[in-house]
Amino acid sequence: MRNFSKPLPLTRRELLRGTALAAGSMLVGCGQRGCSRSAPLEKRTADVVVIGAGLSGLVTARELLKAGAGSVMVLEARNRVGGLTISQEAAPGVFVDGGGSWVRPNHTRILALAEELGVSAVDVSEGRGSPIFLFDGVRIAGAGRLFSRAEMRELRGLRDKLEAMGAELPDGAPWNAPRAAEYDSISMFNWLSENSTTVWGRRDVEMAIDWTFGCGPEEISLLRFVAAVKAQGGLENLMAISREIPKVFVGGSQQLSLKMAELLGDRVLLGSPVTRIVDEPSGPLRVETERLSIECHRVVVAMMPADARRIDFEPSLPKPKKELIRQWSGSPDYKVHIVYEKPFWRANGLNGIGVGDGSVVDFIFDNTPSSGAPGILVAFGAGEELPASLRARREAVVDALLDFFGDEAREAINVVDMDWLSEPWSSGCASPLRPGVLSKYGAALRDPVGRIHWAGSDTSLEHDGSMEGAVRSGERAAAEVATALRERGVIPAPATSSG
Ligand SMILES: Cc1cc2nc3c(=O)[nH]c(=O)nc-3n(C[C@H](O)[C@H](O)[C@H](O)COP(=O)(O)OP(=O)(O)OC[C@H]3O[C@@H](n4cnc5c(N)ncnc54)[C@H](O)[C@@H]3O)c2cc1C
Description:
This protein is of the alpha/beta class. It is built from 16 helices and 19 strands. Strands 1, 2, 9, 10, 11, 12, 13 and 19 form an eight-stranded mixed beta sheet that branches. A seven-stranded mixed beta sheet has the order 7-6-15-16-17-14-18. Helix 4 (55-66) links the parallel strand 1 (42-51) and strand 2. 49% of the residues are buried. The model is unreliable at 8-36 (pLDDT under 50). Flavin-adenine dinucleotide is lined by residues 51-57, 75-78, 83-85, 99-103, 273-274, 302-304, 307, 310-311, 333, 335, 420, 425-426, 429, 456-457, 465-468, 470. Substrate binds at residue 380. Residues 55-481 form the Amine oxidase domain. Its cofactor is FAD.
C-alpha cells in the first residue's frame, strides 16, 4: 500500500509560484526520466477521472467505487493529498492544521467519514478567561466595555435584517431568489454605509465578513454574504467568537485525505496537474496531463471554481460557466501557530482569544492541546501584508502578539506558518464574490457540462466553503456520475431485493 503521509520530494519547478507552474508544468519525475512536452502521451482508460485530491475529490472517488465503478483515477497537481487541509508538526508529536480545522456538531457527513476512517474528533478546549480586543490602538481586555446600548441595538437590527433576507433565499441556490439581482448589485460596504450608524455595529459585521471570507466589506456582495448567513444558520455562527464549541480531528484534518488516499492506493496520481479536458460530443472524453492522456466516460473537476482556470476546456465551456470560473474570487489567508512552553495567557486571566484591526494578524485563538502543553496560539491574517522571508515573517507575527499578550509573547519556542497566497495550486481559502457574479452565473455552479461534473466545497448545497461542504459535494457528484454511468450500462444497477 502506498504511503501518502510522505509527500514526494518537491521539484524546483513546484517551488516556483502560480503562473509559471500553470503555464508549463512538468510532472514530478518527468525531468528525471527525460520526458518532455513533445514526448508522446501515455494513453490510459478509466471509467471516471477525478481531478483534485482534496477532500471533495477523494470522497468522490471513494463513493464511485462503492457505487460499482470499475476504474477510477484521481489526478492531483500537488505532491501531496488534502488540498486546503494540511497537518503541520508544531512540536514533537503535536500536529496542527495549517488549513481547514474546525468542524461543527451539525457537520454530520465529515464526522461520519472520520468515524469510518478511524479518525477521532475532540472538542476544542473551552477557553476560560477574557478575550482581548485591539482596535485603533486601544486594547480592551476583561471587564472593558465594548458596546454601548445603541450599538447593541443596532447590531441586533443588522442581524435581523440580514437573517430576514437570508430566509428569502432558496436553499443552495441564492441566485433563484426573487430579489437576487437587487441584493447582488450592492457590496456589503455600501449596504453597511446605508444601514449602520455606529462604530461597533458596523465593525462587528465587518469582523464576521473578515473572519468568514478573509476580505473587506467592499469585496463581497450583499447576496453572497446573506447566503452565507443563511447557510451557517445565522449571523452569530459567522462570528469568530461564537458560542458553539467546535471540534478538531486528532492528528489534523489532513488525516482524512491521507487515509482515503491510502485506501485508494495507486488510483491516486500525485504531481499530475491536469492541463486539458477534451469533450467533443462525437469523440471520446479525454483528460490530459503533461504525461498522460486518459480516455474515460466521465470526469469530475473537484476544486474551487477559480482553480479550474488552469485547465483548458475543449470545446470551450458555455459562457455562464466560463464567466463563473473567470470571475470567481478566492481570498488569500495566512494561518500561523505560535508555540510556547505553556499557555501563559491563562494564568493572566485570558482565554487566548484576540481580535483586532492589525495588519499582520487580526484573529487569535488558543489552540493548546487538551494535555495543557505546549501552549499554542493560532493566528490568522492577510498574507499580503507580511514580509516574504520566513524569518522576518515569523518575527512580525511574534511582534504583533506582544500588543495583545504583552512581553511573555516574546518567548515563543516555535512558529509554524502556512501562507496560502504562495500555494500555486490553490486560488484562495474562502470565496467572497464581488457584486454581479453570484446572481448572474451562480446557476452554472454545479450543473454538469456535457460529460464534465463539478465537485469542490463551493458547489455544495449546504455548508459550502467548509470541509463539510467538500465531503457533501463529493457525495453529490459521485451520485450524479453513478446515475449517468448506470443509464449507459457502464456500471451495474444496484441489486434490488426480490419479492
Ligand atoms: C486557512 C484555512 C482555514 C480553514 N478553516 C476551516 C475550518 O476551520 N473548517 C472548515 O470546515 N473549513 C475550513 N477551511 C476550508 C476547507 O479547508 C476547504 O473548504 C476544503 O478543504 C476544500 O476541499 P475541496 O476538496 O473542495 O478543495 P481543495 O482542498 O482545494 O482540493 C482541490 C485539489 O485540487 C488540486 N488541483 C487544483 N488544480 C488542479 C489541476 N489542474 N490538476 C490536478 N489537481 C488540481 C489542488 O491541488 C487540491 O488538492 C479552511 C481553509 C483554509 C485554507
